[in-house]
Write a structure and sequence with these properties.
- By secondary structure, the protein is mostly beta strands.
- It has helices at 115-123, 221-229, 345-353, 396-401, 403-410, 497-503, and strands spanning 30-37, 66-73, 88-95, 126-134, 140-143, 150-152, 157-161, 180-182, 187-192, 198-202, 277-280, 290-292, 304-306, 312-318, 326-334, 356-363, 368-373, 418-423, 430-434, 464-470, 479-487, 517-522, 536-540, 552-556, 566-570, 576-580, 589-594, 600-606, 612-618, 651-657.
- The strands form 6 sheets. The chain has a 9-stranded antiparallel β-sheet. A 6-stranded mixed β-sheet has the order 8-7-12-11-10-9, covered by helices on one side.
- It binds MU-OXO-diiron (FEO) and calcium ion (CA) (3 copies).
- One calcium ion (CA) is lined by residues 188-189, 301, 419, 518, 541.
Length: 665
């Protein structure tokens, strides 16, 4: 038996050093098991992955670019949920994007794209649902023929719900009434509801659509403004899928140009079908995922759902682009505990996710904040600015589709790329990672209290983490308090001393310095660390520190909003402001993992007992090519040296403590 400390008190592992090795490094006393990798078969009879570009049928294989993940417990047998199971579960993971070169024998062919290549790339996107089994003492394997195994791809039928469903904005060839959707794409972070469903979030969907030059003249001024504001401006579309020909229109749909179309092949509003939060019932492999339009349309990173007894549901959501905003959705209905175990789970989703109020955050300089409602009738027209004409809203559906315009109109605070949102399960405090910004979006003349840093003509390259506490500790509060929990910093940076102080505001050292925070996670309240003060985990997607270390995962013991000491931000000798925030020390923040070459650390979850930690490793070797791979991970994880031709694969890993203890303590 293992003794478990009830309160973490101090972190119980030795910090992992910076590493440029092509291996996932974990603390002494921990082990890594490589689980589901790009291409692994998840249906009976599907062949093992050859990993030489010849594989196909990704609708029955694990996709690429592993991102957010969640472990949904299963009863010992059958398909029913068991929240307390730490030995059998469904792993639901997003597959955000692809490293195209490794998917084909000799890399991708030029446009027009061969049908099979385009289909393979499309099917590598989406979501996977796979059964995971502990074969005893945390010897994890996945079940290739699990009854609930499923791939959800950009071709999977979906339905629309909430205020924009059935509106003209969503009408396309395959949905004459604007209620049906096809597929999900660029699924980044996630959310988990209180009724055993998963939320997958569509982030950088915009670039997949092609709009050729002639399209501009065919749009109304309002349509053109909407397309531009949401970044749907590519003249080729990612991977040129729209150039592939087929007897059906799986590829044509990525060409959003009207091009003399008749209503029967009108794809002009296809981009409006993306940029949503999508609810999936992982326990019913035949269920149709539901796009929840009440939560708005933008570059959805994640959707942290907070459910508390006697309160309305709150969903906290970042829009990950430079200068975009933090949003909150509050349900109309108050949480009823009986819904937690309902069997028609998507109907519970209808109850809590289709009716409510969408808000956007304004961070005031005095440490207070305001949630600004985005409700038709009260949102003013967005004034003309730059290349945009004035935009007047015509309905709540319009606000749901053009959420960024509505947030502009009410005066939300532009942030340094809002990535993940996560809540402390004990206190309800919300943490928001702000991964970074550049000088054109965050010049020193345009900082604000919540985004105070800009230096050396680089903007805020290392990012920071903001946290907030709702007034009254309720999800439906319209005001909050906030501070900055932590600033990223490269402590080996050789800039001059005064700038160094600005860079390393939180007093990091080599055991915990990090840049570009992205994923974030609190240990579940069911595990021993969670009962008093759950650990906060931070993942990085870094471009600034990769000369000294690969991307990483850190574990911290967070404080609370307002409990830090004062510190000063001095921006390049220009403006100077004082803000209140906590300062990290090696005692309350420590590096737990460093990933392999050119990866990003993404999804994270634990079994309910806290004794297995699951982590996503995204795009190892993304800078290499099929004929010169720059990583061979995960084939390197066991310490061996693979042949130079071995291609890297995104993979999910399970981390366990050799003594069977709770991870991190
Ligand atoms: Fe897909 Fe914002 O990271
Ligand atoms: Ca990514
Ligand atoms: Ca991310
Ligand atoms: Ca990122």
């Amino acid at each position: 038996t293992t003794t478990v400390r009830v309160s973490p008190g101090v972190l119980g592992f030795t910090a992992v050093a910076h590493s440029l090795a092509d291996v996932a490094m974990v603390p002494e006393g921990y082990s890594v098991t490589v689980m589901t990798r790009l291409g692994d078969p998840i249906a009976a009879g599907v062949s093992a992955y050859a990993n030489d570009g010849t594989d196909d049928n990704f609708a029955q294989r694990i996709g690429d670019h592993h991102d957010a993940l969640h472990y949904f417990g299963l009863a010992a047998t059958g398909n029913t949920p068991d929240r307390n199971s730490s030995t059998r579960g469904l792993m639901v993971q997003n597959h955000e994007n692809i490293t195209e070169t490794y998917l084909h024998v000799n890399g991708p062919s030029a446009a027009p794209r061969p049908l099979a290549e385009a289909l393979k790339e499309i099917e590598c996107h989406g979501v996977s649902i796979v059964e995971y089994v502990d074969n005893g003492n945390r010897q994890w394997t996945y079940k290739q023929d699990g009854a609930l195994n499923r791939r959800i791809t950009p071709n999977t039928p979906m339905s629309f719900h909430g205020p924009a469903a059935g509106s003209p904005y969503l009408v396309t060839k395959h949905s004459s009434d604007g209620t049906a959707g096809r597929g999900t794409i660029n699924n980044c972070a996630n959310g988990v509801t209180g009724w055993n469903t998963n939320l997958t979030c569509e982030e950088n969907y915009a670039g997949y659509f092609r709009r050729d030059v002639s399209d501009d003249a065919k749009r109304t001024a309002a349509e053109l403004a909407s397309l531009q504001r949401n970044g749907i401006t590519s003249r080729s579309g990612n991977y040129s899928w729209s150039t592939a020909s087929s007897t059906d229109d799986r590829f044509t749909r990525w060409n959003a140009t009207i091009s003399g179309a008749t209503p029967a092949d009108d794809f002009r509003y296809e981009p409006n079908q993306y940029g949503w939060v999508v609810e999936i019932d992982p326990y019913d492999a035949t269920s149709t995922p539901r796009k929840r339009t009440a939560l708005g349309r933008f570059g959805h990173e994640g959707a942290f759902v907070r459910i508390a007894e006697g309160q309305k549901l709150g969903a906290y959501m970042g829009d990950d682009s430079r200068g975009e905003y933090l949003y909150k959705f509050v349900s109309t209905e108050t949480w009823a505990a009986a819904d937690a175990d309902a069997t028609d789970r998507l109907a519970v989703g209808d109850k809590y996710l289709d009716a409510g109020t969408l808000y956007v955050a304004r961070f005031n300089a005095d440490g207070t904040g305001t949630w600004l409602p985005l409700v038709y009738g009260s949102v003013p027209a967005r004034p003309a600015s730059g290349s945009y004409p004035e935009y007047t809203f015509t309905s709540q559906a319009d606000i749901c589709v053009n959420t960024r315009f509505a947030a502009d109109a009410v005066g939300a605070t532009p942030m340094d790329r809002p990535e993940w949102t996560v809540g402390n399960p004990v206190t309800g405090e919300i943490y928001l990672t702000l991964t970074n910004s550049n000088n054109s979006n965050r010049p020193v003349t345009n900082t604000n209290a919540a985004n105070p840093r800009s230096y050396w003509g680089q903007g805020n390259p290392n990012g920071h983490i903001v946290r907030l506490r709702e007034d009254g500790d309720t999800t439906s509060a319209t005001t909050f308090k906030w501070d900055i929990y932590m600033f990223g910093a490269d402590t080996l940076d050789t800039d001059t001393a005064d700038e160094q102080a600005n860079i390393n505001i939180s007093g990091l050292d080599v055991s915990n310095d990090f840049s570009s925070p992205d994923g974030a996670y609190f240990s579940r309240s069911t595990n021993p660390s969670g009962q008093i003060n759950p650990l906060l985990w931070i993942e990085t997607d870094d471009g600034a520190m990769t000369d000294v270390t690969n991307c990483m995962l850190l574990a911290g013991i967070p404080g609370h909003v307002g409990d830090g000491g004062a510190y000063t931000v001095t921006n390049s000798g220009n403006s100077q402001n004082t803000f209140v925030g906590a300062k990290a020390t090696a005692a309350n923040l420590r590096r737990f993992l460093v990933g392999p070459v050119q990866c990003e650390i993404t999804g994270i979850d634990q079994t309910p007992d806290g004794r297995t930690l699951f982590v996503g490793i995204q795009h190892p070797g993304e800078g290499g090519s099929y004929d010169a791979p720059s990583s061979h991970w995960p084939n390197t994880q066991d310490g061996s040296t693979p042949a130079a031709s071995v291609r890297p694969r995104s993979a999910l890993i399970a981390i366990t403590k050799n003594d069977g203890g709770v991870i991190g303590l």
